[in-house]
Amino acid sequence: MCGRYASSRAPSDLVAEFEIEAGNVRESVEELGENYNVAPTNQVVAVVERKNRDQPDETIRKLTTVKWGLVPSWAKDTSIGSRLINARMETVAEKPAFKKAFATRRCILPADGYYEWYTAEEKVNGKPVKQPYFIHPPDGSILSMAGLYEIWRDKSVEDPDKDEAWLWTCTVLTTSATDDLGRIHDRMPLLVERERYDAWLDPLSSNTDDLLELLVPAAPGRLEAYAVSKAVSSVKNNGPHLLDPLPPDGEDPQDSPTTLF
């Protein structure tokens, strides 16, 4: 699964990477800022492509913010979102919670990298030790995670023209981890390569087989992983220090009583 990630890119970098016109960046993106410990229910940056209301055959690509944890349009309330932070590639085209979004509401969730926890055989006080790892492109490029988004109508807001009448949410697509990363966790987010951005985001395309072929796990060597402090395990901790590799001796700053986070 993908349950935490880091997102610190400037909006200008994302505009350039995903070829978005400056006027199609929502103000909420600028307000969001850097987040080195993105967790479910957080607002996150997303690249979406929507039909042009004035020209139905044209689309508009936008940079916006959505809440992580997908709430299907048919949901009675938003509580279901906390259970739908990931969608498995193997079943995404059939599952009722994801089927409609997969057909027409696909997005890209830009990240620096994501965290996974390796469960060691050793135990402390009878509990398995879980060591977090940061997994990212070693060349510093943007990690373009494949996602879906939904728009849920909040009927408690009478006026449909108000922004708060609509809740935008998302989920991250996952697949089996490649051999070199599978030792840490058996699942990993699916990626959208740059040459496939257009096809993946296109809301006018809905052929299931074609869409599934666009998604690929990271090629061997495309990502690297290194151990980081257990401080990332708490959503209360944030900042670029969470990406620091553990020192060669493996001593975790989190274990020092004098360390402040």
From TrEMBL:
Keyword line: Covalent protein-DNA linkage, DNA damage, DNA-binding, Hydrolase, Lyase, Protease
UniProt signal peptide: none
Segments of this protein annotated with the region Disordered: 238-261
Family: Belongs to the SOS response-associated peptidase family.
The keyword DNA damage belongs to this UniProt entry's keyword annotation: yes
SUPFAM superfamilies named in the record: BB1717-like (SSF143081)
Pfam families per record: SRAP
PANTHER family noted in UniProt: ABASIC SITE PROCESSING PROTEIN HMCES, DC12-RELATED
InterPro entries: SRAP, SRAP-like
EC number of the protein: 3.4.-.-
Name assigned to this protein: Abasic site processing protein
Organism, as annotated: Kribbella pratensis
